[in-house]
Amino acid sequence: MGLVDDILKGDEKSAARLITRIENGDREAYRDLSLLFPYTGKAHIIGVTGPAGAGKSTLIGRLALAFSGQGKSVGVIATDPSSVNGKGAFLGDRLRMKGAEERNVFIRSMAHRSYPGGVARAAAAAAYVMEGLGKERIIVESIGAGQTDKDLFFLCDTVITVFTPEYGDEIQLFKAGLMEIGDIIVVNKSDTPGADDAAREILLVSQRMTRSNGWNVPVLLTDSQGGAGIDALVEAVEGHWRSSGQKGRTERKADNVEAFMMALLKEELWREISARVTAGQTFREVAREVRSGRMDPYSAVRKILDELEPKWTSR
């Protein structure tokens, strides 16, 4: 309980150690996390997603500073693409949030390590740890992975989707899958020519999409470099939080934690099954056949599954 007690007292170094252990797959760390879980569920978790180059990191830095200026305790989880060789954070987005870090905003960078959904596997755990620290606003950055980015929705209470004026045509908006998960849509780099037109076009697309909770998705213009539009964005974020009501927030958090449990379960099942399959004699034999060109990959997969089926059905 020592580490957990230190986190509950607000010790950020202890929180950083626990998050590192969770990232490294330390099972004891997950036991510590379970002790923190009863203290979670009160923070407003805000997701920020969008394509690469949209200015998400700089925007998050501005948001964190704004919330901190309101007297809120703020944490940031910055998810970077993984380094191919080291599997560590590649771009170092926290460098773009230096101003926020200097204002005692707790920032944690983590590589997504190929986790489906563009969110680091440990991002949910890191959010729970930050809640244990007493953070009231937790901002989670996604790498912007298109349709698979929907897992961010399962982690957050409010999702901000960030575009730039060069977002592409209407079809690309739908294909990206980012429109439907955004509670707030931002057209960043508003000083770029065509920003107003882009915002109008995106608003037309957004208005044709059904929202079951009655929330009208705003489309806002911001310039994260200069700070324009940040106050309006903060108000929209708080407005979405208020509009949900206590009952709505409780229900959404319950839905979110169940959905994220299922996402983690799928990943763990894949890891377990993959490890067992690749260690078997059948896999090695089939792999040799495929490598030599004597068997096509489709038939190979079918043969492996046929080999596994009796083991599944016999239990």
Descriptive account of the structure:
This protein has 315 residues and is α/β, with parallel strands linked by helices. It has twelve helices and seven strands. The chain has helices spanning 2-8, 12-23, 27-36, 56-69, 98-102, 123-133, 151-155, 170-176, 195-207, 230-279, 281-292, 297-313; strands spanning 44-49, 74-80, 106-111, 137-141, 158-163, 184-187, 219-221. Helix 5 (98-102) links the parallel strand 2 (74-80) and strand 3 (106-111). Helix 2 (12-23) runs antiparallel to helix 6 (123-133) and helix 4 crosses helix 10. It is globular, with a radius of gyration of 22 Å.
What is the CATH topology of the domain at 39-245?
Rossmann fold
Count every helix, treating DSSP H or I runs of 4 or more residues as helices: 12
Q: Give the amount of beta strand, in percent.
A: 5-15%
In whole angstroms, how far apart are the ends? 38 Å
Overall shape: globular
Task: Give the arrangement of secondary structure elements.
Elements: H1 2-8, H2 12-23, H3 27-36, E1 44-49, H4 56-69, E2 74-80, H5 98-102, E3 106-111, H6 123-133, E4 137-141, H7 151-155, E5 158-163, H8 170-176, E6 184-187, H9 195-207, E7 219-221, H10 230-279, H11 281-292, H12 297-313
Parallel strand pairs: 1-4, 1-5, 2-3, 2-4, 5-6, 6-7
